[in-house]
């Protein structure tokens, strides 16, 4: 999909990354995605409503905290990986998909369902161009995409 290609092209140009749905269970995808960012030395913040530390990092309760803690508008340019149930993903999209501090949001496999897709398809092109929702998983194609976009 053309809009997803646009989002993938800018995703790894972010100043920082956030993983919404990160958790401390190393067998779960939220933890695996968080560790992928750490293993590739990318500046990442875990977002979880209850956990305070995950994989040695301070976790924040909501995405807004990641965006607000940046020192400058340039530093706030955030790419977000989403590993949440679709109902949570939809609420997150409704709140943040148009936030100019977010360069792109990547809904990892399982984070979108028919209601998320329906909502996305109704959004203007400038919002759709910032969302990756049916594409690859960062764990599978992240290195290739990051290299292609000058991040590694």
From TrEMBL:
Signal peptide (from-to): none
Superkingdom of the organism of origin: Eukaryota
Domain CoA-binding intervals: 16-127
The protein's name in its UniProt record: CoA-binding domain-containing protein
Species this protein is from: Malassezia cuniculi
Lineage: Eukaryota, Fungi, Dikarya, Basidiomycota, Ustilaginomycotina
């Amino acid at each position: 999909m053309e809009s997803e290609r646009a989002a993938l092209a800018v995703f790894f140009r972010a100043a920082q990354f956030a993983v919404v749905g990160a958790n401390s269970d190393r067998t779960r995808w939220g933890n695996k995605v968080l560790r992928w960012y750490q293993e590739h030395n990318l500046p990442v913040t875990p977002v979880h409503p209850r956990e305070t530390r995950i994989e040695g990092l301070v976790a924040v309760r909501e995405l807004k905290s990641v965006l607000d803690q940046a020192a400058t508008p340039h530093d706030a340019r955030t790419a977000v990986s989403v590993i949440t149930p679709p109902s949570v993903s939809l609420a997150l999209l409704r709140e943040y998909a148009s936030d100019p501090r977010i360069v792109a949001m990547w809904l990892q496999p399982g984070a979108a369902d028919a209601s998320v897709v329906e909502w996305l398809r109704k959004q203007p092109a400038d919002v759709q161009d910032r969302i990756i929702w049916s594409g690859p998983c960062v764990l599978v194609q992240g290195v290739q995409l990051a290299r292609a976009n000058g991040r590694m």
